[in-house]
Amino acid sequence: NIATPLPRLENLLPPDLDNEHKQLLEGLLQPQACINPKYFYDDTGCELFTRICELEEYYPTRTEAAIFEHSADDISAALVNHAQWIDLGCGDCSKSRRWLQHVTPARLIGVDIAGDFLQTCLADIAHEHPELECIGVVSDFTQRLDLGKLLAEDQSSPPMFFYPGSSIGNFARADALSLLRCIRRHCGDSGQLLIGIDLVKPPPILEAAYDDAEGVTAEFNLNVLQVANRLLHADFEPANFAHQAVYDPVQRRIEMRLVAQQSHNVQLQDVERHFDAGEYILTEYSHKYTTDDFSALLAEAGFHCQHLWTDPQEWFGVFLAEP
Ligand code: AVJ
């Protein structure tokens, strides 16, 4: 293990991290205060998210894993071009890792915003699979995704994009479409996209998934205030806010909020932001799709050939999309 060199890591983050903080600050100063969900994932946030995925109420991870397992042969037979396997938002890469029992890519490219974490996880995989070239890409693909250069290193292998977990649900529909179009451009004539989508279902099930009895999701949501405190030298007092998850059946999305429990001021860098009692910070959208909805979105992005696998309750959908 000591002898194994660390996997190659490409940093595609913009050089001025100040910009990052600006985005956070700007969101908090808008009339409707908001925080982009990418700020959830500091070390504590990553750990809390892992715990969320194990919760009884949080069905997406488990349901997607069951579909992958149940339909592994079918899905892998359909993955014709998987020499370059790109895991978008790979986290600890555990989902790609499981696929390595069924597929044998030459390259695994893990894209995530959390760089240190990424390199350690990829080092483990590289150790287990010595023939596999593991590459980490530190990138914020909510801003831009440009893997053109990296993919061109292996021109003969079209990319296979793996985007599990319904993470695309964080994007507003228009932004989801832009991202899908961007992935489509990277695909050329014969790349593929395997993507997991959380489907519309009765609101009580959705709301429980984002407001569990143990309070792990509440802790995850409130932790973003600590992230803001660090990045902006702010003085958020988490105890002044309460976690809330509301399903909007018209927009078909969960909205996660942090609701101010009393009127107070928060210092953000050199500005003060006032919060009325009951005023909230919007921290996350998690959009839900019908299968028709998402299929239409894929088609609009230029993916005309599609396969779909679901669980018996149709709570979650796994789409394979091709040009
Ligand atoms: C990682 C975006 C898929 O929206 O379900 C889980 C994040 N937030 N519980 C989701 C999340 C609260 C999750 N995604």
Automatic annotation (TrEMBL):
It comes from the Bacteria. Keywords: Methyltransferase, Transferase. Pfam families: Methyltransf_33. Residues 22-322 form the Histidine-specific methyltransferase SAM-dependent domain. One of its GO terms (molecular function) is methyltransferase activity. GO terms for biological process: methylation. The keyword Cell division does not apply. InterPro entries: EgtD, EgtD_Methyltrsf_superfamily, MeTrfase_dom, MeTrfase_EgtD-like, SAM-dependent_MTases_sf. Gene3D superfamilies: Vaccinia Virus protein VP39. This is Dimethylhistidine N-methyltransferase. It comes from Halopseudomonas litoralis. The lineage of its organism: Bacteria, Pseudomonadati, Pseudomonadota, Gammaproteobacteria, Pseudomonadales.
